[in-house]
Amino acid sequence: MAKTLSVEAPRIDGARLSRTLAELGRVGAYKDEATGLTGVRRLALSAADGQGRRLVIGWFKAAGLKVSVDRIGNVYARRAGADESLAPVMMGSHIDSVPTAGRFDGCLGVLGALEVVRTLDDAGLRTRRPLTVAFFTEEEGCRFGTDMLGSAVATGRIPLEKAYGFRDKDGLSVRDELAKIGFLGTADVRAVKPHAYLECHIEQGPILRRHGADIGVVQGVQAISWREVVFTGKSAHAGTTPMDLRRDAGVAAARLSLELRRMAGSGRFGAQMRATVGSVLLGPGMVNVVAGTARCTVDLRNPADAKMAAVERHLDAFLKKVGREEGVKVSWRQTAKTPHVPFDAGVQTVIADAAARLGLSAEPILSGAGHDAQEWSRLCPTAMVFVPGEYDGISHNPREFSTPKQCADGVNVLLAAALALAERA
Ligand code: HGY
Ligand code: MN
Ligand code: MN
Q1: Would you say residue 4 has pLDDT above 50?
Q2: Ligand 1 atom nearest residue 370's Cα
Q3: Are 116 and 418 in contact (CB under 8 A)?
């Protein structure tokens, strides 16, 4: 008979966690030209994502978890509690990646939760509430255009049929790509109602490391707004077309990039304002043809919703101005938009107490990156555990690195916090 839980939580096996992270990191591994490092390329619903999913599910099953796949491809793995009638404490994140990723973004949260389960099994401990470990579809949003897709469907922000219809740059749909990798599941997407949700994640920025803090107690996620902006000018001969006769979509795109940097640096929208043009596709994209079209992505981030609204108004006016001055047509569509999301104060306290009991230094921090947790916070008390990263916490880059101790500290806090929440009525 499993022992009931003492207050003192067991400690995880940090070496096993590192091995598991390394093994998943080999799925979708590629040689990164820019850094010379081995990176991870596991775009959502790609063959590599399917391979990674099957590897992780194999680990879930080997740990005795009951696995289900829902209709948007989210994967839930349940560990029975002493009282199966109680709602589970859920720990999750994502294993899909951007094309130039490291092996920690998202994976630390999923494999850290698996390590929590393995540690409880080693200790023969049964929690009062069931525990669910999960990973969600297309958290990154960089293939099908909107972030936290699987979690947004599971928590009711995006309808399933709308999500099925999203297409990548080659016109392939979410639904078809789920089927292609064998993850068009059958479980109801709204079936999981956790008692609480925890996510362990790398900070992906420089703050914790610079402050010498072991743990970040995440207060929430800043507002995010993504757009796709299309400038349509006139393709023309690069050699014969006088400069004053051009309607150059490439110049319009360049002005957009420069204006975003000027806006973000002006302080007018707060010191935390961040703005990025991550992708510019020029058409026809030839050395001797003035660009007739430019398809750009815009990523805006701001901790304050009111400031984000002001940024959007300024950007709308700027796009009209550039259209007028460059003689190009401007169209744009909103591809992602989430407000500032505050996390539950009670769960933050549980995390802070766990860190203190473990003798780890912790500080509150607002997340600059979007996370699945911000979607689950609509359904249940939610918060996150951040771990610091080396090299100024660089992420979405193969140089992404958190040390085995940093990862183990974060997952020990995740374990202690999950236990505290799982023992509550
Ligand atoms: O874009 C983000 O903030 C996250 O990495 N999906
Ligand atoms: Mn992430
Ligand atoms: Mn990411």
Answers
A1: no
A2: 3
A3: yes
What's at 419, amino acid-wise? L
**pLDDT tens digits for range 240-268:** 999 999 999 999 999 999 999 999 999 99
Among 277, 305, 338, residue at a domain's last position: 338
Cβ neighbour number for residue 283 with a 10 Å cutoff = 17
CA of 373 to the centre of ligand 3 (A): 13
Let me know whether 167 and 83 are in one domain: yes
CATH no. for residue 113?
3.40.630.10
Contacts of 12 (CB under 8 A, 6+ apart): 112, 115, 116, 118, 119, 408, 411, 412, 415
CA 105 to ligand 3 centroid distance, Å:
6
User: Where does the pLDDT of residue 136 fall: very low under 50, low under 70, confident under 90, or very high at 90 and above?
Assistant: very high
Atom of ligand 1 nearest to the CA of 148: 6
Residues with CB under 6 A from ligand 1: 139-141, 147, 369-370
Which structural domain range is residue 277 located in?
A: 223-338
For the chain, the domain total comes to: 2
- The average pLDDT across 171-191 equals 98
> Which residue, by CA, sits nearest to atom 4 of ligand 1?
370
Mean pLDDT of 143-161: 97
